[in-house]
Design goal:
Blueprint (H helix, E strand, L loop, with lengths): L3 E6 L2 E6 H17 L6 H19 L5 E2 L1 H11 L2 H6 L2 H7 L19 H9 L3 H18 L5 H25 L6 H8 L5 H14 L6 H29 L2 H25 L9 H21 L6 E4 L4 E4 L2 H22 L5 H20 L2 H21 L8 H18 L6 H4 L1 H19 L11 H7 L4 H22 L5
Parallel strand pairs: 2-3
Antiparallel strand pairs: 1-2, 4-5
Helix pairs in contact: 1-2, 1-3, 2-3, 2-10, 6-7, 7-8, 8-11, 8-16, 9-10, 12-13, 12-17, 13-14, 14-17, 14-19, 15-16, 15-17, 15-21
């Protein structure tokens, strides 16, 4: 049997045969030696490592052994430090083909968040046209106001502008900025080689030399912090101008749950606490958030104690105290169920995408414009995020994202005044949760025996031989079936 070695390439674990490992070590050592005395040497080598990891993953699963021929091919494609000194820039440019562009925010040419500039780079059009497209509904809204039949058109263009603005802010938060040389080359579709990474890093270093001092760095960091605060306030301001109180509460509710997830992630990553928040702490914080949401919904007159039962089109009046207990249980359960589903690349994102599409359909059916706008924005945000979250994932959701999505789904269920519809819509969420409950209960009852190979359900199926792509596809289709059934079940409500 051939000897193998495990190593981490740009934070991703790989298994290499002994020859491939030795080859990679020599290659990286030569690069480190070449750029050891340069100011940006570490950044250049880090970008090269990240590109090597991407090229390996594009050709095989990281669970497979990386063999020497594949690594030789990748090194040949990337080039060596020696090649740079012996090859002219023109010859190098002719030798390497362009690569597919990737979507990033272009902060260097930004007017606000770099979203339009990034979209312009991705579609290879001038960013001005993207910005004009963003504001086109507003301009058309102004123009149609003079028409005698402007009522319908005004509503359409105002809603469309709201969707565009909300989508912009979601992409501002969801789409990463192109900061490293590798990311900027990917954004531009330029070949990623040792030469191109080095030259791009040097150019950026010269361009940004004005922020190299300690004072400048502090000022820059404070500016970035202020920008984040401004983003949040602008977002809430636009929400307040454009949408009703209901959607504001939904966004606020989802953000609170996202904040709980952020605290948990922060304690795990930055403070090196494996557990993050304890189960008790999470439950108390989530329950408090649910209670606040329900109280505000009732105060605004957006929550009733009339429980709608789909499929039979019956509404049952429930005692307020019992209804609030039920509602809090549903919210906390839904949020944690979505969190459990986020166990493999793209799973929670794809399943929730289908759920968001269901709410968009219901909003269109019942003409709930404001809820439709939020659901559409959630749908678009998940679609954009899936580009980076599908296997092999380049961006992970974490508890911050999964708890936010769980809060959004639960809030939409109550905003549409049909929380019971979350049962067929969230059939995968329920299955994941029940598998975890069954596993724990069976383990305790049998003193150590397991009902599933591993819980929740997606891990059991993964150990049974299902690929991540198959899991995402099957779970999304099951969710789609549940959503279609749910859509049919609410047809007769109004």
């Amino acid at each position: 049997m051939k000897e193998v070695k495990k190593c981490s390439i740009s934070g991703i674990a790989f298994t290499l045969d002994a020859d491939a490992y030795a080859l990679l070590s020599r290659y990286l050592d030569s690069l480190k030696a070449t750029y050891a005395e340069t100011a940006d040497g570490d950044e250049i080598v880090a970008d090269i490592e990240a590109r090597i990891a991407e090229l390996i993953l594009s050709q095989q699963e990281n669970s497979r052994v990386v063999e020497t021929p594949l690594l030789r091919q990748i090194i040949s494609q990337m080039g060596t430090a020696e090649d740079i000194s012996s090859e002219s820039e023109t010859d190098a440019a002719k030798k390497q083909p362009r690569i597919p562009r990737r979507l990033y925010r272009d902060t260097e040419n930004a007017r606000l968040g770099g979203v339009c500039a990034g979209l312009g780079r991705y579609f290879d059009v001038d960013a001005t046209w993207v910005r004009l497209t963003l504001f086109a509904p507003l301009l058309l809204l102004i123009l149609v106001e003079v028409l005698p039949f402007s009522g319908t058109l005004s509503t359409f263009f105002s809603n469309l502008f709201g969707v565009f603005v909300l989508g912009y802010f979601i992409m501002w938060f969801a789409v990463p900025a192109a900061r490293s040389a590798r990311q900027k080359l990917e954004m531009e579709g330029e070949p990623i080689t040792v030469r191109s990474i080095r030259e791009k890093t040097v150019r950026d270093s010269e361009t940004n030399s004005d922020v190299k001092s300690i004072v400048a760095r502090v000022i820059y960091a404070l500016g970035q912090l202020a920008l984040i605060v401004i983003k949040i306030f602008i977002g809430f301001f636009i929400f307040g101008l454009t949408f009703a109180a209901c959607i504001l509460l939904i966004v606020l509710f989802a953000l609170i749950f996202g904040l709980i997830g952020f605290v948990d992630d922060y304690r795990k990553v930055r403070q090196h606490q494996n557990e993050g928040l304890t189960a008790r702490q999470k439950f108390i914080l989530q329950l408090a958030a649910a209670v606040v949401f329900l109280v505000l919904m009732r105060y605004e007159g957006l929550l009733t104690n009339h429980l709608y039962i789909p499929f039979v089109n019956t509404t049952v009046q429930v005692n307020w105290i019992l209804y609030l207990i039920f509602a809090a249980f549903v919210i906390v359960g839904c949020v944690n169920a979505v969190n459990l589903t986020d166990g493999i690349d793209g799973l929670a994102c794809s399943v929730t995408f289908v759920v968001a599409a269901f709410f968009v359909s219901v909003a269109a059916l019942w003409k709930y414009t404001t809820l439709g706008v939020f659901s559409s924005a959630l749908l678009g945000g998940l679609a954009a995020f899936f580009v980076y979250n599908h296997h092999p994932a380049k961006t992970f959701m974490g508890d911050t994202g999964s708890l936010f999505l769980g809060g959004a789904v639960a809030a939409l269920g109550f905003a549409f005044d049909m929380p019971l519809i979350l049962i067929p819509v969230g059939i995968i969420y329920i299955a994941e949760t029940m598998s975890d409950i069954i596993q724990v209960t069976y383990f305790k009852a049998t003193h150590g025996k397991r009902f599933f190979k591993m819980a929740p359900l997606h891990h059991h199926l993964e150990l049974s031989g299902w690929s991540e792509a198959k899991l995402v596809a099957v779970f999304s289709l099951v969710t789609l079936a549940g959503c279609v059934l749910a859509y049919l079940g609410v047809q007769g409500r109004f």
